[in-house]
Specification:
36% of the residues lie in helices and 18% in strands. By secondary structure, it is α/β, with parallel strands linked by helices.
């Protein structure tokens, strides 16, 4: 069975497609990561602005296109705290559903903590007696502990790095007083939340391994000397509290651009890595953790494993994952792939088109592991958009179709997406089409794309 998990977070929408085969670990087929920047788009009133909703619609639509091309049997799409806690959450979900056909679901904070714990348990297996798991996301902090497959204790606190940066650390760099105020706030919140579970959430319990997940903790570990991501998921990475504490004051004195130049710190996370470091330091202190092992598996993998267990054992009580069987089964490629290949051949014979992008028209984006980029048009709910282009005032814009068009809803004469081994996919070549200046090719329903000036 092939399933896709779409995780819409504060910074990006991350799609992971895997094959589930009995007796084997989940095999990754494809991944797609598209920026959303929701954390920066939430105002003081908690409302996500229109531009961010349009960007989110593009990210979700592109994920739908990729899931269709890979013929997923089931797509699990959910949003974490950035959308879940937004003041206009229902409006955002409705607009995304109207524009893409995908309705985002939500997991509670406790479910997120539990599923992340299950993913970490699967990664380490039973070689570890007891796990204490910390996950610092953009909007929330999850903590879970236990010695079984599922945690005995699971907490979720509104101490995400993006959320705290937006609320407590204005300025670049923030003032020392703002940093001190954030430290006090995080310590108070943690003390109140952990106190009732002090015995369960103590890393000093014999046989306990403290584990961290999330990009924030991974980048803080690399900053402290751990192997970089290019070393692969099996390289051991450890975040040491003593090293982290020594770097927080340095991070506080730097601008976001300066932090982005540090070892392991990415540009998108540079603005809120300071808040993430403060939360990590305070959490490790509250839980008596001297160092955290960084695990590459987290929430998405927990969702995949949970769904796999439900499929293998239909009698077990489901976790109420936000999913529905074959949600994208009504998506089709328009026009047929044969026509797309014919147009690609025509562009290859066109001197102007050939000069627009040498070699690009001959590549198979699925054969080399790529996914549809901003040269593909996606048709959703009767309107077309292209990733990377802002929609019109009504959130929709007719765009010229180049290469593949994915249509949500039945389309007369449309053909299902072929698997990679059955038929290669036509590559994109936007500049060539613009240079040609011809009208858009008719789709299966007889409509044409707009003529570019």
């Amino acid at each position: 069975m092939r399933i896709g998990v779409l995780d819409v977070g504060s910074n990006s929408a991350h799609l992971k497609i895997v094959d589930l085969v009995e007796g084997e670990p989940p095999r990754t087929v494809a991944t797609l990561k598209h920026p959303t920047r929701l954390a920066r788009a939430i105002g003081p009133d908690g409302v996500i602005d229109d531009e961010a909703v349009r960007l989110l619609g593009g990210a979700v639509g592109q994920a739908a296109c990729t899931a269709t091309l890979h013929r997923v049997d089931e797509l699990i799409a959910f949003a974490t705290s950035a959308v879940r806690d937004a003041a206009n959450r229902d409006e955002v979900v409705d607009r995304i559903a109207d524009g893409t056909g995908i309705e985002l679901g939500f997991l509670t904070g406790g479910q997120e903590a539990s599923l992340t714990f299950q993913a970490v348990r699967a990664w380490y297996g039973w070689s570890v007696r007891r796990l204490l798991v910390v996950d610092i996301g953009g909007g929330s902090l999850e903590i879970a502990a236990g010695d079984g497959r599922e945690p005995d204790t699971a907490l979720s606190l509104p101490l995400g790095a993006d959320r705290l940066t937006r609320r407590y650390l204005p300025g670049d760099p923030p003032s020392p007083e703002r940093v001190r105020r954030l430290r006090r706030h995080v310590r108070r919140e943690l003390a109140a939340a952990v106190a009732p579970f002090a015995g369960d959430l103590d890393a000093r319990t014999p046989g306990t391994l403290a584990v961290g997940t999330s990009r924030v903790l991974t980048q803080l570990a690399v900053l402290g000397g751990a192997p970089k991501p290019r070393k692969g998921p099996y390289a051991r990475r450890v975040l040491h509290r003593a090293r982290l504490r020594g770097r927080i004051d340095d991070l506080a004195a730097m601008t976001a651009a300066q932090r982005a130049g540090l070892r392991g710190i990415s540009v998108p996370r540079a603005p809120h890595i300071l808040a993430g470091g403060i939360v990590a330091d305070a959490t490790m202190s509250a839980l008596h953790v001297k160092h955290l092992d960084v695990c590459p598996w987290a929430l998405r993998e927990g969702v995949i494993l949970q769904r796999w267990r439900e499929i293998a054992d239909p009698a077990r009580e489901p976790t109420r994952l936000p999913t529905s069987p074959r949600p994208r089964s009504h998506l089709h490629v328009v026009p047929p792939v044969s026509e797309a290949h014919a147009r690609r051949a025509d562009r290859g014979r066109d001197p102007e088109a050939a000069g627009a992008g040498p070699g690009r028209g001959d590549r198979d984006p699925l054969a080399d592991g790529q996914v549809p980029g901003d040269g593909h048009a996606v048709e959703v709910a009767g309107s077309r958009w292209r990733p990377g282009h802002r929609a019109g005032g009504d959130g929709r814009r007719e765009r010229r179709a180049v290469g593949l068009v994915v249509a949500a809803g039945p389309s007369p004469g449309a053909v299902p997406v072929p698997r990679q081994e059955e038929q290669p996919v036509a590559a994109r070549q936007v500049q060539a089409a613009r240079s040609a200046g011809t009208a858009g090719d008719p789709g299966q329903d007889g409509r044409r794309g707009d003529r570019r000036p």
